[in-house]
Amino acid sequence: MQFELTEEQLMIQAAAHDFARDEIVPVAAGYDASGEFPAATIAQMGELGLMGVEVPAEYGGAGLDPIGYVLAMIEISAADAAHGTIMSVNNSLYAHGILKNGTEEQKQRFVTPVASGQAIGAYALTEPQSGSDSANMRTRAVRSEDGGHYVINGKKSWITSGPVADYVVLFAMTDPQAGARGVSAFVIDTSKDGFVRGKTEPKLGIRASATCEIELEDYHCPADCRLGEEGEGFKIAMGVLDAGRIGIAAQAVGIAQAAYDASLAYVRERKAFGQEIGSFQMLQAKIADMKSRLEAARLLTLRAAWAKEQGEKSGKRYTLEGSMAKLFASETAMWVAHQAVQIHGGMGYSKEMPVERYFRDAKITEIYEGTSEIQRMVIGRLETGLR
C-alpha cells in the first residue's frame, strides 16, 4: 500500500492549515457565540479553491482529487466545524451532484460561481416528516402542459446554508405512485418567486453554519434545471450522500484532532500534586486511546477517499467505505471530545476553553447525512446481502 501523499495533496493540506490557523481560529469562537454566517472567511476560502476542491478548474474549482479534499476538510474542521460544514455542503452535496449528473450548461451556470466562492450552494432532501425515510417525501413537482417548466410545492427542513444559499439541489416527487423511483432532482434559483426561507434554527453546535426550513410555493422551475431524467432523483441523492459521508468523516476527524491537540497541550502544562497531570497513568491511558482512535478514523477516511477516486474511474460504488468511515469517524469525534472535556475538568465545561465547542460540534456528525444507526444498517445490508 502507498501511504505517501503527492505534492499537490501536501500543498492543499498546507494551504488549508495556514488559512485555518491565521483566519478561522481567531474568529471561530465569536461566530459560534453569535451564530452569524461567516461570509468573509467563506469568500476567502472560495478564492483559495476550498469551496470546490474536486471541481475542475474550468468550472472554478481547484481540480484536485478526493484525498486532497479530505486533507483540506480535516484542517478547516479542526479550526471550526461550522466552516467545515459549509465547505462540505458546497463540495460534496452541491457541486458533486451537478458535476456527476448535470449538463454542460448546468455545470457552467450552477457550479462555477459556487466553486469559486462567489455564491453558496445547498442540498434539500430532508422534510419535516421524512428524515432517514427520504423516499417518503411530500414535495411535489408537476410538469406544465407545454413541458417547459415544473411547478414545485413543498417544505424541506434542516437545510444547511439555507438562509444564505443562492442555489439549491432539491428533490421532489414527479410521480408519487412510483415511490423512490418517482423522485426527480432540480437546481433551484433562490432569487425567484415562490422560494421562501424559514427561521434560522437555533442549533446546539456548528452554529455559524446557518440552517433553516425552506418552502416552495408554486415555484416555477425551468425544465432545463432538472438534473438527470425524471425518476432518477433518488439514485442521484444516494450517490451524492456516498460522497457527502466522506466529507463528514473528514469533518469528524478534524474535530477529534482539535480536541486531542487541546488535551495533549493541557496535560503537559497543567500541574497537580506537584507534577504535570500528563504523568498520571490514567490520563496517559486516555491520551493513548484518543490517539489510537483518531488515527484509525483518519485512515478509514483516507481509504474511503481513495475508494471514491477509484470508483469514479471504474463506475463502482463506494457506499461501504463511505459509511464505515462516517460511522467510525463521527463516533470517534464524539468520544474524543467527551474525553477532552473530562481531561480539562471544570475548565472543559467553560466557554473560555474551545473543548466545549468541540463537544457540541461533534454530536451532529453522528446525525446528519445518515445517522450512526443508518450507517450500521447500510453496512450490515451490504455485508450480509440481506435486507
Automatic annotation (TrEMBL):
User: What GO terms are given for molecular function?
Assistant: acyl-CoA dehydrogenase activity; flavin adenine dinucleotide binding
Annotated Acyl-CoA dehydrogenase/oxidase C-terminal domain ranges read: 231-381
Pfam families tied to this protein: Acyl-CoA_dh_1, Acyl-CoA_dh_M, Acyl-CoA_dh_N
Domain Acyl-CoA oxidase/dehydrogenase middle residue range list: 122-218
- Outline the extent of the Acyl-CoA dehydrogenase/oxidase N-terminal domain: 6-118
Catalytic activity of the protein: 3-sulfinopropanoyl-CoA + H2O = propanoyl-CoA + sulfite + H(+)
Keyword Oxidoreductase appears in the UniProt entry: yes
Mind listing the UniProt keywords for this protein, alphabetically? FAD, Flavoprotein, Oxidoreductase
Its needed co-factors are: FAD
Q: E.C. number, please?
A: 1.3.8.11, 3.13.1.4
| PANTHER family in UniProt | ACYL-COA DEHYDROGENASE (PTHR43884), ISOVALERYL-COA DEHYDROGENASE, MITOCHONDRIAL-RELATED (PTHR43884:SF12)
Family to which the UniProt record says this protein belongs? Belongs to the acyl-CoA dehydrogenase family.
What protein does this entry describe?
3-sulfinopropanoyl-CoA desulfinase
